[in-house]
Amino acid sequence: MKTAHFTTWLAQLNALNRGQKERLRSALDRRENAAEVIRLIEQGLQEKPLCPHCGNTQLQRWGVSCGLQRYRCRQCRHTFNALTHTPLARLRHKDRWLTYTQALIDGVSVRQAASCCGVAKNTSFKWRHRFLQSPARQKAQQMQGIAEADETFFLESFKGKRHLPRKARKRGGKARRGTATEHIAVLVVRDREGATADFRLTGVSAREIEPVLRPLLSTDVILCTDGAAAYTVIAKKLGVEHHPVNLAQGVRVRRGAYHIQNVNAYDSRLKQWLARFHGVATDYLESYLGWHRMLERFGKSILPGMCLRAALGKERHFQQATAT
Questions:
Q1: Residue 188 exposed, middle or buried by CB count within 10 Å (0-12, 13-18, 19+)
Q2: C-alpha–C-alpha distance, residues 64 and 59, integer Å
Q3: CB 71 within 8 A of CB 81
Q4: How confident is the model at residue 46, as a pLDDT?
Q5: pLDDT tens digit sequence for 209-256
Q6: Reported pTM
Q7: Residues 135, 87: contact at Cβ < 8 Å?
């Protein structure tokens, strides 16, 4: 806009009523949010452009689309932008993404997030699980020092499904007594530096637990668990030092340092946080586990931009900032 036209437009602001001023302010805020989102998205790609199709570094700029710089690979001839091959590819309304990531930080429901972002409920549901794809996959790859492991259990839930393989439970309800098949086991592994990994299990025997523990535990790691026999078998097979605590007999700490209080405290915080959703569908349990890991990682310092970068897979959020 030319200076003369802008001056004329600026002089007309006093003629706007309160509602029109609010609409103008909202439009300007959305523009600023969209610009900030695009900056966060393109931050890494501008530093070191790399073709997501073939890995080639010989690229040429290929115009702009939806506010994002496009590139063309000189080798494979594919075009792409910073969102290509990310969970957020092809999602619209970038001006509302920071508002939505703030809703993720606040842990509100799908409908509440839709309301504060001005989008449909189905859009809010789609965004939730697209934004949580990367956090659900990123876990600690290696434990250090003393690692604690314990299982926690969640009621199997068919929330959102029209046809159930069992009689419906009212208001969440409880599983039938003695019916282990109605519970989903989740193994949580956490070291004293806060590195955390969790896994949905099909059972709690050594056969199911060993494959997920093996990559996490090197021979110099000390494993602390409860008195379940499966962990003794696994520790012996992996060649790691093992210190079980017999909670049934009131033994919670051995030799002043070996306990599972950190992982149990994490499980308690996880269940308390999940309670706000009044039951989580088992199909999406891993997404919610990753969501909670992300919030634990950043703690009170988390910002919408950090959450957005985590959704793009650009933030390592499985490591706690400080030791616990």
A1: buried
A2: 15
A3: yes
A4: 60
A5: 999 999 999 999 999 999 999 999 999 999 999 999 987 777 788 888
A6: 0.85
A7: no
pLDDT band at 291 (very low <50, low <70, confident <90, very high): very high
Instruction: Decide if 147 contacts 191 (C-beta within 8 A).
Output: yes
pLDDT at residue 180 is higher than 70: no
Tokens encoding 312? 């793009």
CA–CA distances in Å: residue 209 to residues 158, 186, 216: 25, 10, 12
Q: What pLDDT sits at residue 245?
A: 92
Strand extents, DSSP E, the chain:
59-65, 68-73, 79-80, 146-155, 183-191, 196-201, 222-225, 241-244
CA 5 to chain centre: 47
- CA 220 to chain CA centroid, nearest Å: 29
CA distance 59 to 122: 37
Q: Distance (Å, rounded) from C-alpha 324 to C-alpha 321? A: 9
At 146, give phi and psi (nearest 5°). -95, 125
What gap in Å lies between CA 130 and CA 123, rounded to an integer?
Answer: 10
Sequence-distant (6+) residues with CB within 8 A of 224 are 146, 147, 148, 149, 242, 243, 244, 245, 258, 259, 260
Integer Cα distance of 63 and 71 in angstroms: 7
Side-chain-facing half-sphere of 11: CA atoms under 13 Å: 6
- Report residue 186: phi and psi, to 5°: -125, 120
Percent of the chain whose predicted confidence (pLDDT) is above 70: 90
Q: What is the Cα 199 distance to its own chain's centre?
A: 14
Asked if 201 and 151 touch (Cβ cutoff 8 Å), the reply is yes
pLDDT at 316: 56
